[in-house]
Design goal:
Number of strands: 0
Largest sheet: none
Number of helices: 4
Structural class: mainly alpha
Radius of gyration: 24 Å
Oligomer: single chain
Distance between the termini: 70 Å
Length: 150
């Protein structure tokens, strides 16, 4: 991987090396193998490519949905998008080693060992009314005055 001045600033100094792809060839990404994608997803989820999924002390630091989105983003640029990986060609994001990483992160989530969900929900009407009532009571909001229509 090339050393950029910003690599340390974004924590990218330990990103696993992917094969160099010449940009002038239309099939430049054809050299990417499933183990490259799986190593990237392991690094993304665990911070290292050397992961033992049976070790319950290693907890993922991202959600499976993040890995699925990364897979989708990588797949978008693959020369053969629709084909599954057949061992020598196809789309490496649709291979067993890659799907195994996502599956193990999902398993960790169900065991409450993964990153906690950041999903939020809308306020219910009762909660909304309580917040508005509190704000009016503290003088943070002025009650709207109804102006007669002219």
């Amino acid at each position: 991987m090339a050393n950029n001045a910003n690599d340390g600033a974004f924590g990218l100094e330990d990103v696993p090396d992917l094969p160099e792809a010449p940009t002038e060839q239309p099939n430049a990404l054809a050299g990417i193998q499933p183990h490259h994608v799986a190593d990237y997803l392991k690094w993304r989820a665990y911070g290292t490519t050397d992961v033992d999924f049976k070790d319950l002390e290693q907890n993922p630091t991202c959600r499976s949905s993040t890995l699925e989105q990364d897979k989708k983003a990588i797949s978008f640029y693959m020369p053969i998008k629709g084909a599954t990986w057949n061992g020598t060609s196809g789309n490496p994001t649709k291979s067993d080693p890659v799907n195994e990483v996502v599956k193990e992160v999902k398993k960790a989530e169900t065991q409450h060992r993964g990153k906690k969900s950041c999903a939020t929900r809308d306020l219910t009407e009762t909660e909304y009314r309580k917040v508005v009532h509190e704000l009016y009571g503290k003088g943070a909001l002025n009650r709207p005055s109804v102006q007669p229509a002219c």
